[in-house]
Amino acid sequence: MASMKFLAVAALTFATFTQAASAAPTVVVSIKPLHSLVASIMKGIGDPELIVAGAASPHTYNLKPSNADALQEADVVFWVGHGLEAFLDKPLMALAGNAKVVEMDDIPGLDKLAFREGGPFDHHDDDDHAGEAEHAEEHGGYDLHLWLDPTNAKAMARQIETTLVAVDPDNAETYHRNATTLQAAIDAVDAEAAALLKPVSDKPSVVFHDAYQYFEHRYHVRVVGSVTVSPENLPGAERIAEIQAKVRDLQAVCIFAEPQFESSLLQVVAEGSTARFGVLDPLGTTLADGPDLYVELIRNLATAMRDCLSG
Ligand SMILES: [Zn+2]
Hints:
Layout: H1 2-20, E1 27-29, H2 32-41, E2 49-50, H3 65-73, E3 76-79, H4 89-95, E4 100-103, H5 132-138, H6 150-167, H7 172-197, E5 204-209, H8 213-219, E6 222-228, H9 237-249, E7 254-257, H10 264-270, E8 276-279, H11 293-310
Parallel strand pairs: 1-2, 1-3, 3-4, 5-6, 5-7, 7-8
Helix pairs in contact: 2-6, 6-7, 7-11, 9-10
């Protein structure tokens, strides 16, 4: 009896407590790296929902019914933009009617790089390239793998903080404190990545898809070509022969696959060369979702590049 009474009192106390605290806003985020930044800033308040979960890629994603439900209930939606998550264009218009929608490629303080083409990189003006590149061109030709430069992640974190404070001012102090912690963590991993990559900055490599321009720019690493601009457009025989010649002629030290696109293509690309193989995970698909993912993602990319290039 005594324990029953205790439970009843505890339940009542808990109910009173949760009512007194301000309810967390319902937040939905498109991809893992951005979700991690939002989760960091919401720490202790609530957990944001993630759309492109697990090993999925935004380049090839199809919205699930559970994602549609989440969008319908959202107070805030964060996504990168049309050029990356084209599958969200229509659902955002149709479903997220009441939500504040923040498109990251529109925010202030970003260092944006133009989409590159030609040379060792894939062409993206062909009729069959209906994905990332074409969309990016419609929106000014920017490469939308923005999060791979930590200074851009810091700009995103500032925007996330401002947005959450506006939607949920009762928790402003916590958002501010979390954002300060996150900015410091990003600075630390940025310095760590720079130190890891400095000794291998002259070693050429080839990557699976053209996702790393921001990372290359930030850390002065030498990616000399990609097998494809975007994973939804796999290369033809002519393109593979071209890249094969590139790997040989430029003496690429490493060819980097990606966890969700491991492909026999890369074996073919390496034929006739002495290139080693490594794996890069630009989305953090192999990492647990949540506040720590972003920092681990940058650290893992730097470590994987360093290990293969210096091996
Ligand atoms: Zn990509």
